[in-house]
Automatic annotation (TrEMBL):
Residues 72-119 form the Methyltransferase type domain. This is Methyltransferase domain-containing protein. Keywords: Methyltransferase, Transferase. The keyword RNA-binding does not apply. Residues 222-234 have a biased composition (Low complexity). GO terms for biological process: methylation. It holds the Pfam family Methyltransf_11. SUPFAM superfamilies: S-adenosyl-L-methionine-dependent methyltransferases (SSF53335). InterPro entries: Methyltransf_11 (IPR013216), SAM-dependent_MTases_sf (IPR029063). The keyword Transferase applies. GO terms for molecular function: S-adenosylmethionine-dependent methyltransferase activity. Residues 222-245 are annotated as: Disordered.
Length: 245
């Protein structure tokens, strides 16, 4: 078994744990809310098929890209899309398994069109989960590199992204037993007020800016304009890869 396959199995096993289910539920709710009113033509989620990041979105072309399965099998470090061709890109912990996270983020910036949206999820090193010895073992099992929130914001700024919203969540301690997690629900209620930047996971929404360019409304084809090119992929109606909204 390769290291990548071992990491994939580690992620699948971890997501079935009480901690994993707790984290996944928070992330799914954030993504459902964020993508519901984002419009365009082409949307892609890179990895984590257990998380249906595009299920609440209504763009006509939505794909799940994965390095081992999914609608589109590809490398996340060399995406098969033209420059400036995607309207929405979802990266759920996609940078944490990258050999070079900054390069992978730059590749995401390349394929997003001006004013395109980037949604990122990552584990927060500055949290109870980040400091807990069990989380270090979980990180090794899943092949994750934890990237701090401030570090990621600096990378996004260098790549001409504006961070429009950031949220932290999952404030309960990383207990291994479900009853213990349930007993600490009060921390999720008070965490955003008492210790807002110490949630176990962060969710960032960013917009790709191009200096000197201003888009009004949704870019569509018209006289003298052609829509951004994208690779030829099966239409959403002809496949079952992404579950229907």
């Amino acid at each position: 078994m390769t290291a990548q396959e071992d990491a994939i199995l580690g992620v699948a096993s971890w997501l079935e744990s009480p901690r994993g289910r707790y984290l996944l539920a928070w992330e799914q709710a954030r993504l459902d809310q964020a993508v519901a009113d984002l419009f365009g033509f082409h949307a892609v989620q890179l990895g984590w098929p257990a998380l249906e990041g595009l299920r609440a979105n209504r763009m006509p072309n939505r794909w799940l890209a994965d390095e081992s399965a999914g609608d589109l099998h590809c490398s996340f470090d060399a995406l098969p899309f033209s420059n400036d061709s995607l309207d929405l890109l979802v990266l759920p912990h996609t940078l944490e398994t990258a050999p070079d996270p900054h390069h992978r983020l730059a590749e995401a910036a390349r394929v997003l069109r001006p004013e395109g949206r980037l949604l990122l999820l990552g584990l927060n090193p500055a949290s109870l989960w980040g400091l807990h010895p069990q989380q270090w073992r979980d990180n090794r099992a899943t092949g994750r590199e934890r990237i701090g929130y401030r570090r990621l914001r600096d990378w996004l700024r260098l790549l001409s992204f504006d961070v429009t919203q950031a949220q932290f969540g999952c404030y309960r301690p990383p207990w291994s037993r479900a009853p213990w997690l349930e007993a600490w629900q009060f921390m999720d209620r008070h965490g955003p007020t008492w210790w807002p930047v110490f949630g176990a996971v962060y969710f960032i929404q960013a917009v790709k800016r191009v200096h000197g360019m201003r888009l009004v409304g949704l870019a569509r084809s018209g006289p003298g304009r052609r829509p951004a090119a994208a690779v030829a992929l099966p239409s959403r109606s002809s496949r079952e890869g992404i579950r229907k909204s």
